[in-house]
Target: tRNA (guanine(26)-N(2))-dimethyltransferase
Amino acid sequence: VVLFTFLLQQPNCGCAPEFNSTMAEPVEKLKTIREGSAEILVAEHVFYNPVQEFNRDLSICVLATFSRVWQRERAEARRKKAKDGPEEVVELVAGQRCEQGLRILEALSATGLRSVRYAN
Model:
């Protein structure tokens, strides 16, 4: 919905599929891509390499492990700085924003699928 709203607001950008004002859906059909618990809708012309699914699986595992280690080290540093005061435990929930969490840029993403999977 957000994609189509943007494309309708930018009709001359050259990237929007043609829309018929009498139709509720675009002329260009979308396909569903599913990986893990993520699901995205993309136009037929969008590049998607299914062979790279293992690479995306691996990067998600590595990132999840790094995030746990990083959060643990940050908690340890805060505890030492507070001179062994009460330990603040931050509950991390997938799909919910953590202000002190990691920030990731997927600058060369064709579909954004890896980013969606990171958020899940």
In short: DSSP finds three helices and two strands in the chain. The chain has one domain: 2-119. Residues 2-119 form one domain. The mean pLDDT is 75.
